[in-house]
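Session log. Operator J.P. requested a structure for one protein chain; no other inputs attached. Running the standard single-chain path with token output.
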Amino acid sequence: MKNVFTLPLFTLLTVTLSFAQGFEPPLGSTYNADSTEITLPSAYLDANYIDSIIFDVPESFTVELGGQSLDLPFNFAQITGVATPSGMAYDCSVMSCYFEANTSGGVVLSGIPTETGLYELALSAAVSINGAPLGINLDVDFNIPYTGGNVLLDLALNGDYSVLNDVIPTFFINVEPAENNPNLSIDSKNIENFDRFVMSPNPASEIASFSFYNNDAKYISLEIYDLLGNLVYADQLKGCVQTEQTYNVNTSLFNNGVYLYKMSTSNASHSGRLVVNK
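Structure written below.
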């Protein structure tokens, strides 16, 4: 059965959104004057990068109806894509990147960029709101970027799709040359990474084993992070020259999900993803 709407409702709808306040960029990000453009901390060529944009999903958002504010309930938003530099990818701390109202989660950017430059991290999303406060017994679904096609929104916006497309700020990341990396010493720029590195099984349920050779390591540190960037595991082990080493992590204590690990010495590191599925 189709719902019937009256045109006067749409003629009253002058919309002002402020979803951008629901995004928390990483510490060290920079903003333009009105915070519609946000540049994340720099990545560096051939160096592992990991950082998160936190999405605090509101219970509702505000629209202006004839000069009066009205809160519209928020159903969900699902991040459907993020344009990333070559060598990098995105993931989410919540299943299928599906964020419900009154929840918080992270959109995690990670990887080793292979080309320098300033990149726009264009986000796309599927969004759903509850139209009941407008007298509409219907959930209103739309995609961002929005290019039209939803009769309700098209009439309401009168062709000004920027009202919805400005929901998500424009994010940028600058990939700089390796020599600009403040965490990279001169002596370490040409050091080879861990040799014959194997992490298995992956996905892991009870135990994840890290096997590798490293010819110049008195001590080796292992750090494991969740997709919000929280350190969930850390340990240090003594290196053995010219000897294969195997290090076991008890993953039975971890929650199911995707984790990022980093094994490093003073001059070399190896990073990757660990999936826990019990």
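Operator note: The helical segments are 7-11, 151-157, 162-165.
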